[in-house]
């Protein structure tokens, strides 16, 4: 497989994966729709930091050890599931206090101030605690590395393609979410958004725990 063919083929695969609604989409849309554009970009950069680490570790062969070790994979899966369920339930709980979750003291890790750093930490942690990202890279990345090419260099190049697509799609999501900002100034609208997002996040955590 030629390098250009490998890059375009991989771009198609990860492009379809990126466009599929999921946890990352929910976090970016929710954070940006609340008017916290800086934090939303922090979440985006955190998610892509996690992607870069998964790609680098896979290129070095480290993630193969993770997927080969049932104990390590299961431990990471349960930690990630617990984190997502906790985050989702906490978001849902705050909406039943009579105020939008973004206005409650307990929501600093969920919405908080418009801080790029806080968003980056949330995005990175969410991505790295998802062992399915590691499993995806172990299963898919080697198939797009041409024979004779440097495994590490080509692996990072393919990961960079994934990150670029992720950044472009995130820019579209953040732009779209800005349209909703005026409507979300209403407390009822914020509670609705947080209940939807909290449910999605918790559901992903349960799904991860069940290993689906």
Characterise the protein shown here:
By secondary structure, this protein is mainly alpha-helical. It has one domain. The chain has helices at 3-19, 23-33, 37-60, 62-68, 70-95, 116-128, 131-140, 151-180, 187-210. Helix 2 runs antiparallel to helix 9 and helix 5 (70-95) runs antiparallel to helix 9 (187-210). The longest helix has 30 residues, at 151-180. The chain is globular and about 60 Å long.
Structural class assignment: mainly alpha
Mean pLDDT: 82
Secondary structure tally: strands: 0
Instruction: Kindly report the oligomeric state of this protein.
Output: single chain
Helix content: over 70%
Per the principal axes of the C-alpha atoms, what is the gross shape?
Answer: globular
Describe the sheet with the most strands: none
Write the element-wise H/E pattern from the N-terminal end onward: HHHHHHHHH
Domain module count: 1
**Alpha-carbon Rg, integer:** 18 Å
- How far the N terminus sits from the C terminus, by CA atoms, comes to 32 Å
In DSSP terms, counting alpha (H) and pi (I) runs of 4 or more, how many helices?
9
Which stretches are poorly predicted, pLDDT < 50 over at least 5 residues? 99-112
| Residues in β-strands, percent | under 5%
How would you concisely characterize the structure shown here?
The chain has 212 residues and is mainly α.
Keywords:
mainly alpha, single chain, 212 residues, globular
Can you lay out the helices and strands and say which pair or pack?
Layout: H1 3-19, H2 23-33, H3 37-60, H4 62-68, H5 70-95, H6 116-128, H7 131-140, H8 151-180, H9 187-210
